């Protein structure tokens, strides 16, 4: 049987199509391209039950992924992350059925590994030898490492303020790494020029069509892990928004296969108060966002002033009766600590922002009593060492700890 | 059907037995206690094939774990980590069949989550309200977070030199955290006193019997993931050695169930050159180790000058015709970078030490041509931000990158 039922690339704006055997970036009209599949053949050859005994990685869905030869799969075991029940936190915010999809449990510690695994595998399949990309850190780390495994050279440009740990990951992979004294949008301009000057494969967000396919596996997994019953609401911390676009694509694909039924979950884009272009566009009922001036947030992964796929994110929100909401940094950090204390999960501030959003949306009544809610935690808290401030008592050897010292310590 | 077929605790030194329904620490003779099961009942009620459709977490082996009521399971989705093929690195060291079990892909980013998940779950089952433990960082982070999820209070004491990120994890869990101006052995003394003075549950390595059961799931998973064919050699970075003890216990249990056949894999304890008490004991053919004076290594997790379970580690090595080997810090760091460049896996220095060991043991002929070798990577490289030193060129906005700049950058 065929490993993949991929058929072609298509433009969601002008409907032009492209061949998946060739290297393509954006459509000639400037829009990102999406991947389509032979749905009739998938229906004929694959049943939900076939998945039951497959390996717990995103490659369990290989028929619905673009890599045609399994020998081109570049994997470090990514995917099938846990969907964790959050009963104590849920009680605290009056959301009885609260779940977290924990994307901290993947190679490189963030969900970026999904896009990198599928994107790099397909790049290998179509003969890419050298790629380049701008990054806020985590995507660059993932792509550089998967590219190293694939034997593909990479050039990565990141803002000087991006987390140092991601700098180390990129450097250790042997990639060519540059810092830029600016934002990811500045890094993007430098990469665009480098791509043109040196004829590189542009792996920038949505400038290659396959990263979305990796991200869509989050949606496939949520559906499978919930026993093919869709939740009422899915929240996603939104920078470039590829994960949300991917989840929406996945759910539509599952519906067309007849594997899930009924109304799609309401999709919620969660952004940072000081970088909320999607929220602003949604509030103004627009179909595209505007560049957000002087953006800043400690949730570095969602500091994206203007996303190339903004129109796809907004479409996903409108089509599912979802919404967009902005959360301030202070609330994220407070929620992050609450999640640790109540559920033992040390997550990233981006992930924490989705839980603040749930709290607010439940208070406002937008999330109703008894609804099932899934929050995406996009990365491990350990990638953000500076978000927790601690003062710890220091003991000398042979010291004693008594219970009545309790109040001295955090 | 019963969730667990646990029968009792027993002492591997004096053979005294204890009830698993009560709280026990060490045997009255001072030895750690081990857990035993009703093997005949397991044989009757569970087949290897039953596992095929179970969730990808260590709880898939619940019949072989000590928690009797599934309601007591405290899980963050730990276990069933990937067993990754390392073909390029393998070629580089003439080991054709080289695999890495990647324990970076668990909550808290290290294999310590396994011991914490099972240990805390059982602690909850037997009514523990407050626990205490010394730690080099990662174990404390895992136990504090799982305890938080279980609603159990914890007191954690760690050396001031332990990784700061683990300090933040513990603090964010709401645990009582203390630093000590000394080594883990000094932290251990303080905890022993605190346990006695305040009547706490002692969760120190091997002072409670259930952590091993969590760690043994690494052995169960390796066997299952290799299709129930055992590898020739398994290497493990050894500090307290619980993982190695656990893997040995798992493989013996699988053999008694008839799920695996033939000779057990040769187990290799890998230590740091400046903290190698097990290696010294093995070289001197002793059954116990001596306290290692002035130990130091950047692989903080294996800086354990004297392990309580040293005799069990040495027994596992002797019984399987294994060996023990010490690796210097510089070689670990070099291997860590090589693994990143060749395989795209950014692992911790402890994990890297096992690959250096494979290289050396293959050179010496101890590992033979064609043998299948599994290395345990015990944690994610992102928990050790300081092991990679990078110098990165800084660009101004609007800068250009040309290929001929290649030689300027790493």
TrEMBL record, chains A, B:
Gene3D superfamilies found in the cross-reference section: 3.40.50.1100
Catalytic activity, EC: 4.2.3.1
Oxidoreductase as UniProt keyword: no
An example Gene Ontology molecular-function term: threonine synthase activity
UniProt organism field: Ureibacillus manganicus DSM 26584
Keyword NADP: no
Reported cofactor(s): pyridoxal 5'-phosphate
Highest taxon of the lineage: Bacteria
Domain Tryptophan synthase beta chain-like PALP positions: 74-379
Swiss-Prot/TrEMBL GO biological process terms: isoleucine biosynthetic process; L-serine catabolic process; L-threonine catabolic process
Protein name in UniProt: Threonine synthase
EC class: lyase
Family matches, as CDD domains: Thr-synth_1
A Pfam family this chain is assigned to: PALP
Keyword tags: Lyase, Pyridoxal phosphate
């Amino acid at each position: 049987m065929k490993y993949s039922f991929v058929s072609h690339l298509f433009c969601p704006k002008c409907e032009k199509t492209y061949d998946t055997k060739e290297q393509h970036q954006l459509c000639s009209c400037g829009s990102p391209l999406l991947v389509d599949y032979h749905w009739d053949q998938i229906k004929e050859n694959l049943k939900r039950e076939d998945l039951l005994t497959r390996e717990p990685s995103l490659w369990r869905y290989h028929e619905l992924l673009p890599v045609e030869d399994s020998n081109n799969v570049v994997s470090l075991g990514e995917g099938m992350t846990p969907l964790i029940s959050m009963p104590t936190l849920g009680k605290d915010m009056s959301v009885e059925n609260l779940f977290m999809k924990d994307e901290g449990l993947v190679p490189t510690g963030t969900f970026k590994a999904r896009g990198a695994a599928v994107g790099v595998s397909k790049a290998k399949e179509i003969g890419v030898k050298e790629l380049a990309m701008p990054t806020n850190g985590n995507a660059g780390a993932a792509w550089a490492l998967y590219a190293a495994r694939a034997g593909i050279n990479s050039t990565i440009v990141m803002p000087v303020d991006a987390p140092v740990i991601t700098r180390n990951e990129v450097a250790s992979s042997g990639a060519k790494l540059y810092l830029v004294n600016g934002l990811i949008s500045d890094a993007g301009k430098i990469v665009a020029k480098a791509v043109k000057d040196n004829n590189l494969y542009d792996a920038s967000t949505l400038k290659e069509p396959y990263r979305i396919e990796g991200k869509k596996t989050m949606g496939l997994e949520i559906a499978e892990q919930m026993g093919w019953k869709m939740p009422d609401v899915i929240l996603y911390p939104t920078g470039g928004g590829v994960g949300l676009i991917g989840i929406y694509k996945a759910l539509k694909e599952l519906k067309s296969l007849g594997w899930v039924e009924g109304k799609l979950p309401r999709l919620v884009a969660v952004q940072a108060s000081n970088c909320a272009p999607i929220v602003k566009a949604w509030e103004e009922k627009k179909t595209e966002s505007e560049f957000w001036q002087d953006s800043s947030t400690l949730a570095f992964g969602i500091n994206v002033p203007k996303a190339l796929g903004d129109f796809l994110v907004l479409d996903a929100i409108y089509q599912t009766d979802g919404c967009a909401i902005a959360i301030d940094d202070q609330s994220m950090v407070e929620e992050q600590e609450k999640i640790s204390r109540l559920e033992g999960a040390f997550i990233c501030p981006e992930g924490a922002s989705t839980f603040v959003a749930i709290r607010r949306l439940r208070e406002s009544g937008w999330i109703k009593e008894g609804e099932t809610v899934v929050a995406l935690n996009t990365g491990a808290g350990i990638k953000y060492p500076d978000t927790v401030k601690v003062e710890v008592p220091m003991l000398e050897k042979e010291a004693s700890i008594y219970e009545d010292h309790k109040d001295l310590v955090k």
